[in-house]
Amino acid sequence: MASKYSMIVLALSACCLMAAVSASAIGKKVAAEGRCNTRVVNNLEDTIKLCTRNVPAQQFAEPSWQCARTVSGWLAEDDECDLSVVPDYLEDCLWGYGFLRERSIRPAVKCIKNAIESEICC
Hints:
By secondary structure, the protein is mainly alpha-helical. The chain has five helices and no strands. The chain has helices at residues 2-33, 38-51, 63-77, 86-95, 102-117. Helix 2 (38-51) packs antiparallel against helix 3 (63-77), helix 3 (63-77) packs across helix 4 (86-95) and helix 4 packs antiparallel against helix 5 (102-117). Residues 1-23 form the signal peptide. Keywords: Signal.
């Protein structure tokens, strides 16, 4: 009778140990995939500058490089490196410039979206 209980305790212990190891492995994977590394952020910034090269500028406002720096900064601060949010970030940044209109913003957002989807960027 005691051996049955010993086997049950042993089986439960093994299950708990495997669950703990799995949780630890998942935690390490999430930590490893966490924030974007510097290379990804720099490549993203360069791609945004390329995609926004036709966006109009004014004397004291250069949306191309300013949004490239802003969006890459936002992504670098995020807890995970999710490039799918970059087109939305870029669109938000560009709309912040009152002199820009949709005909200037849409092509830039489409460009960065295509670059990310086709894995050209980053």
